[in-house]
Write a structure and sequence with these properties.
The complex is a heterodimer. Chain A is an all-alpha fold. Chain A has helices at residues 2-22, 29-36, 38-58, 76-83, 85-115, 123-135, 138-149, 155-162, 177-202, 206-214, 219-230, 232-248, 253-256, 268-277, 282-310, and strands at residues 61-62, 71-72. In chain A, a hairpin with an 8-residue loop joins strand 1 (61-62) and strand 2 (71-72). Residues 18-26 of chain A have low confidence and may be disordered. By secondary structure, chain B is an all-alpha fold. The chains are: A mainly alpha, B mainly alpha. At the A-B interface, helix 2, helix 3, helix 5, helix 6 and helix 7 of A face helix 1, helix 2, helix 3, helix 5 and helix 6 of B.
Chain lengths: 311, 282
């Protein structure tokens, strides 16, 4: 394949250079648009726009992926979804992840950013450490936490035993597994939000703090009257990323629970994977995809409206 | 007022308390990672009684058996090929498109940009089943390109946006002068825009690389043959086979984290710049 690619590249390059020499005079706006835009437009249309449109179309059919979709069933896939217990759990879990991200993860990230903002000794090292989990692949982080939570060999089991409790098997426990995942979510992503806040804090004019000090403002006043208002756009952006990431959570859950036990840790995407992809129910899975799409797009537009109003 | 106080964001904590909090959080972040890395050096029995501490006896064989075998390297190679192809194709297509959107205005150009930016709004998961059908019908299942092409397509929006915002800072007067002097758009792109844009090209390249290196869902759906698995699929398969041998799984995980950490240290500047690019603009 390497040789083939090299040949193709060479021939394209040859054609390109001769073309450039011969047609330089009409090297106009139209020519550059016609030459530069099609690759991106073609890829996007073929692999993003068309599949999304097809998802909407397939979602009205009962189809296993072979031949053409023929069994039109109208909105039945959507009706099935709304009644489905596992899908409702998935939706609730997504909401729970959003809530925890906003209420616990972001304040933690902001607190760490503020604690690190004063150019204290070791700030760079702490920043790197907090950012480290974000750099790891979700799959690797998930497997590490699967070990942490393991009742026989893991850290939690040993810690519980040391305190005199029986070793818990949290990931196998319907009532606890989701909370265990939420801890991993906070651990994995708070460093990313901290980085956003660090960048945002650096944009604030230090003279404001000096002025506030001279005027005798207390620490709490400076936080609520100077830092937080001026950090508004960054906080909104970070909340946007947190919600969008929470809606799409998948990679992290697969190595931990795969959505189990008995669907207690499903999210929309793990549900789509377990009930759509692995069972090749194209129509049903596409309906989940369409719901995911609608939620994401509605949220993006909502965020845009809020942003244009405040920023 | 001292220089130090100028940067004070009004935290009235004592330094001791401040460091105590920071060290506590840093500890909570690091303990699972360190325990996993150390766990790879233990025997299974040792791991069972002593998951936290240093190994009673350092079992280098756990790591060695993985590094000495072909499987680990095959997985890294597959991930590398997919990531490099994704980066190159993304940079080529997006730099060209971003150049047009930054400097060439024509009827419909705003509409086309908005169209491409739609991809920013929803994840590939939403279209994963039709995408699977499409890749199958194109005969690209179980090939590198079956992963690369959709990855590039879903990354287009972000990359074009970052590149266009940077390209736009190159003054229009410079382009006008070049055009009057008989230098065409394409020569301007090659000899002015691209050399001036090395930092943003590096940033986009690093982001796309890391994204591809870590990606899981798309390869999971497209690839079925384990000789072509990228490492996230490979490690899940490994865990499935050796699920009772935690020490081997931990050694394997640690070995896959290692390239990520090296990459992070090398490309840290670009990675952080890219991730926070949106934040500063608000």
């Amino acid at each position: 394949m390497g040789a083939k690619m090299a040949n193709a590249i060479a021939s394209v390059r040859a054609r390109f250079s001769s073309w450039r020499r011969s047609t330089r005079p009409i090297d106009s706006r139209l020519a550059v648009a016609l030459l530069f835009l099609p690759p991106a437009l073609l890829l996007f249309t073929l692999f993003v726009a068309l599949p999304m449109g097809e998802a909407a179309w397939y979602s009205f059919y009962n189809w296993n992926g072979y031949g053409t979709p023929e069994t039109f069933i109208g909105l039945k896939n959507y009706a099935l979804l709304v009644q489905n217990r596992a899908f409702r759990i998935a939706l609730c879990n997504n909401l729970l992840i959003i809530a925890v991200s906003l209420a616990i993860q972001l304040p933690l990230a902001l607190a760490m950013a503020i604690l690190l903002a004063d150019r204290i000794r070791g700030a760079v090292a702490f920043r790197m450490i907090f950012f480290l989990p974000y750099v790891l692949a979700e799959v690797a982080a998930g497997l590490i936490w699967r070990f942490v939570y393991d009742g026989d060999y893991g850290l939690l089991g040993k810690a519980a035993a040391a305190l005199g409790f029986a070793a818990p098997y949290v990931l196998a426990d319907r009532d606890l597994a989701m909370y265990a995942i939420l801890i991993v979510v906070v651990w994995k992503y708070f460093g990313f939000h901290m980085m956003l806040y660090v960048a945002g804090l650096q944009q604030i004019d230090p003279n404001l703090y000096e002025a506030a000090h001279i005027d005798g403002a207390t620490g709490r006043q400076i936080l609520t009257r100077v830092t937080l208002p001026l950090l508004g756009p960054t906080i909104r952006l970070s909340a946007f990323f947190a919600v969008l990431g929470s809606i799409q959570l998948f990679d992290l859950i697969m190595p931990l629970t795969k959505g189990g036990p008995s669907d207690s840790t499903q999210t929309m995407v793990t549900y789509l994977y377990s009930y759509g992809v692995t069972r090749m129910r194209i129509g049903f899975g596409s309906a989940v995809g369409v719901i995911l799409f609608v939620i994401c797009v509605a949220f993006a537009f909502g965020y845009n409206r809020i942003r244009t109003r405040y920023d | 007022m001292t220089e130090r106080a100028r940067y004070d964001t009004a935290v009235t904590l004592s330094p001791v308390l401040r460091y105590a909090i920071l060290l506590l959080v840093a500890g909570l972040v690091l303990v699972p990672l360190l325990a996993a890395a150390l766990g790879g050096f233990k025997s299974l029995g040792d791991l069972r009684v002593n998951p936290f501490g240093l190994p009673a006896q350092w079992e280098w064989d756990n790591y060695w058996s993985i590094v000495a075998g072909p499987r680990y390297w095959q997985l890294l190679w597959n991930s590398l090929v997919i990531a490099v192809l994704t980066v190159v194709l993304t940079l080529v297509t997006c730099a060209m498109a971003a150049f047009v959107f930054a400097h060439v205005h024509f009827f419909g150009s705003t509409f086309l940009l908005r169209y491409l930016l739609l991809g920013l709004m929803f994840p590939a998961a939403a279209a994963i089943l039709p995408l699977f059908i499409k890749i199958r019908d194109l005969g690209l299942l179980d090939t590198y390109w079956g992963v690369v092409l959709p990855q590039v397509a879903f990354g287009l929006g972000m990359s074009i946006l970052l590149l266009r915002n940077f390209f736009r800072q190159i003054p229009g007067e410079l382009l006008d002068a070049a055009l009057i002097d008989g230098c065409g758009y394409i020569r301007f792109f090659r000899h002015v825009t691209l050399p001036l844009s090395r930092p943003i090209i590096a940033t986009v390249g690093v982001i796309v690389f890391v994204h591809s290196w870590n990606s899981y869902l798309l390869p999971l759906v497209v690839l079925n043959r384990d000789s072509i698995y990228p490492w996230p699929l490979g490690i899940m398969a490994y865990q499935g086979e050796y699920s009772t041998d935690w020490q081997l799984v931990l050694a394997f995980v640690t070995l896959t984290i290692f390239p990520a950490i090296v990459m992070f240290v090398v490309a840290q500047k670009y990675l952080v710049a890219g991730l926070t690019a949106g934040a500063v603009k608000g």
